[in-house]
Amino acid sequence: MGLLTEGSPLSWEETKKLAQHVREHGIIQFINLFKRLRDREGDVLKWGDEVEYIIVKFFDDKKQAKVSLRGHELLLKLNEKELADPDGVKSLWRPEYAAYMIEGTPGKPYGGLLAHFNIVEANMRHRREEVSELLKPDERVMSITSFPRLGCEDFSDPPAKPTPNEGATRSLFFPDEVIFPGHPRFKNLSRNIRERRGEKVAINLPIFRDKNTKIPVDDSFKHSKAALPDHVYLDAMGFGMGCCCLQLTFQACNIQEARTLYDQLTPLCPVMLAFTAASPIHRGFLTDVDCRWNIISGSVDCRTEEERGLKPLKENKFVIKKSRYDSIDSYLSPQGEKYNDIPLLYNEEDYKKLVDNGIDHLLAGHIAHLFIRDTVSLFSEKIHQNDEEDTDHFENIQSTNWQTMRFKPPPPNSTIGWRVEFRPCEVQITDFENAAVVCFVVLLTRVILSYQLNFLIPISKVDENMQKAQMRGASMEQKFWFRKDITTQISPPEANECCKTGSTNCEPQKCDMFVQMTVNEIINGKEGEFPGLIPLINSYLSNMDVDADTHCTIQQYLKFIQRRASGEILTTASWIRKFVMEHPDYKQDSIVSEKINYDLLKTLEDIQSGEKYCPLLLGQSTMSKTKETVPSALKEGC
Ligand code: ADP
Ligand code: MG
Ligand code: MG
Q1: What is the pTM of this model?
Q2: Residue list, CB under 5 A from ion ligand 2
Q3: Full set of structural domains in the chain with CATH
Q4: Of 14, 73, 452, 525, whose CB is crowded by the most CB atoms within 10 A?
Q5: Which atom of ligand 1 lies at the shortest distance from residue 109's CA?
Q6: Ligand positioned closest to the Cα atom of 245
Q7: What is the pLDDT of residues 193-226, one digit of tens each?
Q8: Residues lining ligand 1, CB < 6 A?
Q9: CA-to-CA distance for 63 and 55, rounded, in angstroms?
Q10: For the residues of 427-489, what is the DSSP string, one character each?
Q11: What is the 100 CA–ligand 3 centroid distance (Å)?
């Protein structure tokens, strides 16, 4: 989403009537765009990160921490520089779903030089400083994935009351005032998703069962039949879209390379989700999951009862397996085709129109599949468009299919090429950790392309991995499907056939193209069996001319990734769990009280700002304020 512009959202009834109009024109717009840009060549690697932040307000006298709803106010200030000099700013700021969130990106994308890795962390730090300058003395900008007590009584400043019987959300816990107020899009989406679905969204998170955990966990089940008594019940878009994440976008040299990157990064999504897990607490309870993914997926699940398979189809056309926020359903490159083992739903006529216009089977299937969704947000000024030039209807559907990967065509009349976005990661506490994750993934893309690696596994196995990735402690305890020999280009068809899920006569010995490995084995390697992603990156780097500074920066990041993968450094989620469970006030009842929440956030803030140094718990830069105390082990190679 760009800078704030005004707009008049249509009611759900009006939007619903125009769903087919948006679909038809969106597909025509994609066809026109494709015809213009399919042969676009010669774009160079550019990439950028997106970090989302929460504004936290500390009440030191009462030992409370709340979300501060000043995102809009801050954005208006933060955007002033960009409005005055769009090309001269170091950072760009955008609104996000919640009134306590903001999103920051570098002012310009980075380029192909390895030396750019030297400025990623500094840019992230700059962004934090830029926001910090505008904050009140008791406010802090924090890159936490979920605010632990979101939805608890008086969790915001100013305080607001939920309105279960009216308004956009109708939540028992999440007031409409906590939705970003500066643009109607977010409230409108919340209302339309609820109305399309025919009821409020419902997310039930398994509670972490400690010695004194009470079941039922609270009395939500008395107020809503959707609430399961032994789960933490969440009933608003804000519980998911109010979480923060770390995303990356890459520009490819042409459409083929973009398809390859889209596919090859797909099996890495669950691995990186588990690796970056950072959100074990929701609505004041320790849960049995470590990640936001299923919450955010459920928080915008606009499928009707018919579409969810709960009622026979009458009004709707399909039973749809997933929410519009979920993992991708198909690979796009010719190499990926044989691993597309889950049926792709689409309207035949949409698919046919795309194919009749020269779009190949894989891309036509992908686009037609995105378009099974109705628009859930339409503005009156955008209804009638010039399909030769505009792409708003296409973007309307594309940008509300929130998937693990996004395939992004070049915008009209721009110098930007075909891009892919990597979207699974949870955001980390420190700039050092976020920079490390970013540099690791960027380097992986270079290794994938230079060595023509093949990470593809059946897409159904990626889905299986996505569910495992979110379990408590997954990064250490779960095993993930991964391709054993990532150097083969052409895999034996019989082994492939056999390994598809659902095959009844599977012979395990032929299935050894896909093995189950821990995150540690995938990242650090498994003796004699799997080379490991970091050793591959190091081998790639050893053939490059890297200056000493850049080498030092990259090695710090890679060492951190290795240590976290091995468990020597905890995931953010495990660290947070440990903090809560060791807190003197914790009663082994899964409840994260106001005091525990306050102490947790204070400590995370101290770590993030470098006041406290504990590199073996959370990743911290050796460039932080307390440099002198850096253990020598961490200085290796520098
Ligand atoms: P979104 O689709 O998430 O709103 P944007 O289109 O705003 O994303 O792009 C956000 C990210 O893309 C930022 O990290 C930005 O630095 C990066 N970016 C901008 N231009 C390019 C480009 N030409 N190639 C690759 N990444 C780019
Ligand atoms: Mg965002
Ligand atoms: Mg994004």
Answers
A1: 0.94
A2: 103
A3: 562-637 (1.10.8.960)
A4: 525
A5: 16
A6: 2
A7: 999 999 999 999 999 999 999 999 999 999 999 9
A8: 1, 46-50, 105-106, 109, 249-251, 416, 419
A9: 17
A10: PPSSHHHHHHHHHHHHHHHHHHHHHT------HHHHHHHHHHHTBTTHHHH--EEEES-TT-S
A11: 18
